[in-house]
Amino acid sequence: MPRFVAQAVPPHSEGMRIGLLGGSFNPPHQAHRAISRFALMRLQLDRVWWLVTPGNPLKENGNLHELGERMQAARDVADDPRIEVSCLESVIRTRYTIDTINTLRRRFSGLRFVWIMGADNLAQFHRWQDWRRIAAQVPMAVIDRPPQSFRALASPAAQALARYRVPENEAGLLADRPAPAWVFLTGLKLNLSSTGLRNPDGSWKGTK
């Protein structure tokens, strides 16, 4: 494995259950942390990796802060040894989630990955590049984010993947299941968003 790739991947050991939370983290905030800690508990994960993207293909990136600034802010917000912040996508130069997942699965086949997303992302998941292949590569955990619940579960992707949905009381076994498999996790009542923490000029409002 190239050294530069190894350096961008957080410490790990064979057999670990790793949650992957991708995003621009512009800015990172307490909901990112809460979602991660919730996933660690409910999915019985060993770690959650925050994959800080260079830019989101589905979003306007004109107000995106520098990657180094977002990385440091993410580390400050995470404040948990089980949550690791990575710039992997910048290092391996992937633009789409499917490419990142393929790289991780190929190079770290001994790890068990779960893709984590909020319900707002499930609602638009059908717009992601090769979304069906993503679902076929890794189990997915969707964290409920009211008032997005109905829109998310009625979305094209949720309907297409309905037969692969795992009961919520079996969430702790999700990392061991072959993909496609996904679970919708309820009970976390936080509605912060990075959009709401940005000023019109793109600057951050100074809220963690």
Features of the shown structure:
208 residues; alpha/beta; 6-stranded parallel beta sheet; 33% helix; globular; EC 2.7.7.18; transferase; Probable nicotinate-nucleotide adenylyltransferase; ATP-binding
Report the end-to-end length measured between terminal Cα atoms. Answer: 35 Å
Sequence stretches where pLDDT stays below 50 over 5 or more residues: none
Based on CA atoms alone, the radius of gyration comes out at 16 Å
The helix-strand sequence is HEHEHEHHEHHEHHE
Q: Please state the average pLDDT score.
A: 86
Helix content: 25-40%
- Record field, number of beta strands: 6
Biggest sheet features: 6 strands, parallel
Family: Belongs to the NadD family.
Function: Catalyzes the reversible adenylation of nicotinate mononucleotide (NaMN) to nicotinic acid adenine dinucleotide (NaAD).
Organism: Bradyrhizobium guangzhouense
Protein name: Probable nicotinate-nucleotide adenylyltransferase
Kindly describe this structure:
33% of the residues lie in helices and 15% in strands. Helix 5 runs parallel beside helix 7 (131-137). The mean pLDDT is 86. The longest helix has 13 residues, at 30-42. The protein has helices at residues 3-8, 30-42, 67-78, 88-92, 97-107, 119-123, 131-137, 149-153, 156-160; strands at 17-23, 47-52, 83-86, 112-118, 140-143, 182-185. With 208 residues, it is α/β, with parallel strands linked by helices. The protein is globular, with a radius of gyration of 16 Å. Strands 3-2-1-4-5-6 form a six-stranded parallel beta sheet. Helix 2 (30-42) links the parallel strand 1 and strand 2 (47-52).
